[in-house]
Design a protein that fits this description.
This protein is mainly alpha-helical. 75% of the residues lie in helices and 0% in strands.
């Protein structure tokens, strides 16, 4: 039981740059139980910023949305965005499995990575502006929860593809169905009672995006890497936000 709660400390250190005291879990996979909770906390931080911005005498939803996107990027240390950029660069190299893995491991960012980063950040910003103006900011926290849940999904269902190990290997290699079930249970408990049918539909878009990425990774790479998990988080979160932005006007 102690190791389970220490998994929270491991999760915070894995997914954010927030300094927390205490010993980490002996088993890195214990952190997977807490991924949706981290999504809840990060999304809650974004909602807190949105609420404070709403108290200002001048309404400026575009600036508020920019703050929310920046907050998520900074509190995660840009880790997921970095994984997304590395994955995008691997697509652009047009090579075989080994070349794609080399490109993803390269710390330098290429043109494909830059283009995809701009697109994703801009898509998030547009969607959040619409959610703020439409009074549906709860979907921001839903997206944050689902994106971390899908990281657990891929970690459980896909093998780690680098034989030499790497970022995420300790979590993915020992992930079990229990982590999958716990993550989805938390996601349902946190989201559906507050979001209803529209939230369920938006979550489906996020799930489909994650599964498409997982299917591509399985075919092309034989499994996943830490970069793929980061890309999964960003793509599924964006899918939920954009679909929610559509429903905000319905």
């Amino acid at each position: 039981m102690k190791d389970y709660f220490r998994g929270f400390i491991s999760a915070v250190r894995l997914l954010t740059v927030v300094p927390v005291p205490g010993a980490e879990s002996v088993k890195q996979t214990s952190a997977l139980y807490w991924f949706p909770v981290l999504g809840l906390l990060i999304g809650g931080g974004q909602l807190g910023i949105a609420y404070c911005a709403g108290l200002a005498p001048i309404e400026w939803p575009e600036a508020t949305a920019l703050l929310l996107v920046a907050f998520a990027a900074f509190i995660t240390g840009g880790l997921h965005l970095d994984g997304l950029a590395d994955w995008a660069d691997s697509l652009g190299c047009m090579g075989d499995r080994e070349k794609m893995l080399r490109v993803m491991k390269d710390s330098r960012i290429g043109s494909f990575g830059v283009i995809v980063l701009i697109f994703i950040i801009f898509a998030k910003w547009i969607a959040i502006v619409r959610l703020i103006t439409g009074g549906r900011t709860e979907f921001i926290i839903f997206a944050a929860i689902l994106s971390r849940t899908m990281m657990v999904d891929l970690a459980v269902r896909q093998p780690y593809t680098r034989s030499e190990g790497g970022t995420g290997h300790g979590v993915v290699s020992s992930a079990r169905p229990a982590h999958f079930l716990a993550a989805y249970f938390q996601c349902i408990v946190f989201v559906l009672p507050l979001g209803g049918i529209k939230a369920a539909v938006c979550l489906l878009f996020g799930i489909m995006m994650a599964w498409l990425l997982g299917g591509w990774s399985k075919r092309k790479l034989g499994g996943i890497t830490g970069d793929i998990l980061g890309a999964c988080s960003e793509l599924s979160e964006t899918a939920v936000l954009v679909s929610a932005g559509f429903f905000a006007g319905v």
